[in-house]
Please model this.
Amino acid sequence: MTKATQKRSPSAERPRWPYFGPPQKRLLFAGFGIWIGTALPWFVFRPLGVTRYASPLAASWILWAGLMALAGAIARWRMVALVSALMGGGTALYIGFWQMLLILQRCGFDTGLRCFPGPGVVVVQVTAAVVLFQAWRLFQGLRSS
Model:
């Protein structure tokens, strides 16, 4: 059989996801983690049993940041995945720290733990840090290729 008569299957020609290895797969999970953090309570006031969620503006920006992380997870071009991860992770980390500072200002750094940040803002910050670390891993792959 010659090369001209051999047929190549379309699936053999296309690369499979994740296109850039494990960092892109981790971006997918971290993007969903950012979305989950948006849905969790961001503020807890224990004596009254009150929990508050993210303000609508902060929640919309955090959802956008999670969407950018997910876009980086499915991008076929390394530079698009890198920029998407940087924008999503940076935005989520910034908004998360801003909301954490507002909560701590209102609570006055209460040592009795009657008033404290909820799990949502912590999940957003941790997953944003994971997104930024995966962006760094994508950048290292860009430099080596």
In short: Strands lie at 43-45, 50-52, 115-117. Helices lie at 10-13, 22-39, 56-74, 78-107, 119-144. The chain has one domain: 20-43+54-144.
